[in-house]
Write a structure and sequence with these properties.
about 110 residues; mainly beta; OB fold (Dihydrolipoamide Acetyltransferase, E2P); 5-stranded mixed barrel; globular
């Protein structure tokens, strides 16, 4: 059976961290997306969701290493769940997007 794990986001960049591992680099950054709707009283409501993104150095992710906070970005990738045990001994998990394509929107 064919399966699909694909995410596509257009949003605003938050924090950006770039690390180097020998000859390769990895960018970790956050992207905020907004969902707008009207409340039961007819008032507009904006719901913001923050997404964690990781992009390894590659031909389609070069923009991930040139983006800065506040820029609009288009990200295509897949979801990955990272599980870990915190310092307090509690098991936690976080969802991140492993980017296969990152593009800056100007």
């Amino acid at each position: 059976m064919e399966q699909l794990n694909k995410v596509e986001l257009i949003g605003t960049v938050g924090s950006v961290y770039v690390k180097e591992f020998g000859t390769t680099k990895v960018a970790n950054f956050s992207v905020a997306t907004n969902y707008c709707y009207k409340s039961s009283q007819g008032e507009p409501v904006i719901e913001t969701t923050w997404h964690r993104v990781i992009a390894w150095d590659g031909p389609d992710t070069k923009d991930a290493f040139r983006i800065s906070k506040g820029e609009q970005v288009h990200v295509i990738g897949r979801l990955r769940i990272q599980r870990y045990t915190g310092a307090d001994g509690v098991e936690r998990s976080m969802v991140e997007i492993v980017a296969s394509r990152v593009g800056s929107i100007t």
